[in-house]
Amino acid sequence: MSTMIIILRNKRNIFNNYHAILGNKICARYEHAINKNEVVCLKRFHDIPGPKCYPLIGTLHQYLPFIGDYDAEAMDKNAMLNWRRYGPLVREHPGVRLLHLFDPEDIEAIFRHDDRYPVRRSHLAMFNYRTNKRNVYNTGGLLSTNGEEWWKLRSTFQKNFTSPKSVKVHVENTDQIVRKLVKAIKETYCNGDDFLKYLNRLNLEIVGVVAFNETFDSFTTLEQNKDSRSSKTIAAAFGSNHGIMKLDKGFLWKFVNTPLYKKLVESQEYLEKVAKDILIKRISFYKQKEEGQDNCLLKSFLNEPNIDMKDITGMMVDILMAAIDTTAFSTSFVLYHLARNKECQDRVYKEILSLLACKDSNITPEIVAKANYTRCCVKESLRLNPVAIGVGRVLQKDIALKGYLIPKDTVIVTQNMVASRLPQYVKNPLIFKPERWLRSSPEYENIHPFLSLPFGFGPRSCIARRLAEQNICITIMRLIREFEIGWMGGELGIRTHLINKPNNAVTLSFSSRDSFCHNREKMFMPMKSN
Ligand code: HEM
Questions:
Q1: Which residue's alpha carbon is at the smallest distance from atom 23 of ligand 1?
Q2: CA–CA separation, 182 vs 258, rounded Å?
Q3: Which of 168, 96, 204 has the alpha carbon at shortest distance from 366?
């Protein structure tokens, strides 16, 4: 019989103030207390269902080809397998004590329980690389640093990232860049090509201008060359993210320069070079020209009193790493879903026509705010295909979940992607239905707020959430205003690196709405009121 842990709860402070007592005998000793307080018998962490765990290797054998049931690049499938076999709480030991959560109530409990400085256990090799390079960095950067040092960085940099006002100032610039994409599609895209390459270039351009007031000229013929600055920056951003998860699981890189670690270092070095060149250019520009219309994030960073250049360099590298693939992959999936769901695409088009009656009108913050249905499409696509399978946290205090004691220091992975595809939480979960988010729709569903968390939650959530949502929305609006979009491939799935990359080419077709839809346009035109 498994040992129980008896927890004497003090009702005023449910999780923190308890005495854990091992052994069933203790129940009798505490009989009196049981009547006065609430006593809960908690099972041990070890008793949580999960794959068989061996000494030293834990559950790592499950990731071995031909032997294990898991695929390191299909974490969504591993999670679904776990959920089917073991239920809503799954214990794993891939080198650390890890717990997967599928129930949004438990996910909520974890985030509500989070500390002032939520901790993530990720980017360990990158942290090691940066903290050993003191001539360039002061810290591991926002993505990999924890504790008070993380908060010092976050509170310094987040002001200009997060407020709705500071995000809106980038709408018109972003729209101008998306127009360059439209031009590139018209001039160079052949239906059925991999559109992801275009989206990577688009998002490098957007982040370049929004964050650093820097254009990479990504769509020019010269920049298509694989040795160009834009191509190498996109490759280095991908190279930085690609190995993170495998490096986090392993430890060999601590002793030898493994190929994955080497790739990470090369990629980081290239991003550092790009960041430093831009920083030097901007500083000398601002010295000469104090005034002028420049809303980029870098200018606001440089305006912060007492900020260290090394912290700015680190933040710039983090931005380059975090912005390109995430937004490009997310936009790929929105386009994929809209291309395969013509009714939804028509509804987006109808909405955009009502907001942008003239095709050449600029998209403004007010227009983005009114594009309710388009925003629901983005939300629905992020429910089905978030770029992260879930959110990672390290527990900083013990917690009780579903009758188990989950000890401090356990690594938690909230399995939002899989949970968002379960029928107990969403109606017909595998169907793309933006209406489920639209309050005015009869198909609106009251979805648990902790079920779909594509940008994480709380003080450690994505620093650029508003910006990213805005960028995707503008891209979708401009593209659907110009083109009818079709899908030329099969089912599009994911490969999970640190972020979920489409597992196949993003084969879209673009038909100009000018050529065939004069009548359709009329059909969708908002009715004139008398
Ligand atoms: C659709 C696009 C994006 C998605 C889905 C996304 C998602 C996420 C997620 C899930 C996290 C972890 C949150 C947590 O632990 O609670 C995160 C963190 C972060 N993201 Fe994003 N992100 C996106 C775009 C961006 C962009 C455009 C930037 C930069 C311009 C960015 C910068 C960051 C940074 C720096 C962090 C670390 C924040 C911290 O630890 O304090 N992300 N993002």
A1: 326
A2: 42
A3: 168
409: left (phi over 0), alpha (psi -120 to 50) or beta: left
Residue 58 phi/psi, 5-degree rounding, is: 60, -120
pLDDT of 52: 86
Domain tally for the chain?
2
Q: Among 108, 116, 296, 326, name the best residue to mutate to test ligand 1's pocket (greatest count of ligand atoms within 8 A of Cβ).
A: 326
User: Residue 38 pairs with which residues in a beta bridge?
Assistant: 9
**Are residues 223 and 79 located together in one domain of the fold?**
no
| The last residue of a domain, from among 59, 80, 113 | 113
Q: Domain range holding 275?
A: 124-388+454-524
327/178 Cα distance (integer angstroms) = 13
The verdict on residue 400 lying in a domain is no
Reported pTM: 0.90
Q: Tokens 């380059």 identify what position?
A: 320
- For residue 370 the two structure tokens come to 């009114």
Give the SS3 label for residue 173: helix
Given ligand 1 and candidates 455, 473, 496, which is best to mutate, with the most ligand atoms within 8 Å of its CB?
A: 455
pLDDT score, position 517? 46
Phi, psi of 494 (to 5 degrees): -135, 155
Shortest CA distance to 97 belongs to which of 408, 502, 401?
408
CA of 463 to the centre of ligand 1 (A): 6
Asked if the structure places residue 349 within a domain, the reply is yes
**Do 163 and 98 share a domain, yes or no?**
no
DSSP code of residue 5: E
The two structure tokens encoding residue 153: 């960085």
**Edge-to-edge strand list for the sheet holding 404-406:** 18-22, 4-9, 38-43, 404-406, 399-401
pLDDT at 165: 85
Q: According to the model, what pLDDT value does residue 146 have? A: 97
- 10-residue block means of pLDDT along the chain (530 residues)? 47 38 36 46 93 80 78 88 95 91 98 91 95 96 96 92 88 97 97 97 98 96 96 97 86 92 96 97 81 83 90 97 97 98 98 93 96 98 97 95 96 97 98 97 98 97 97 98 97 91 97 65 40
Give pairs for 485-490: CB < 8 Å, separation 24+.
485/335, 485/338, 485/339, 485/345, 485/509, 485/510, 486/191, 486/339, 486/510, 486/511, 487/336, 487/339, 487/340, 488/191, 488/192
Closest ligand 1 atom to Cα of 153: 41
Maximum C-alpha span of the chain: 83
**Residue 118, ligand 1, Cβ within 6 A:** no
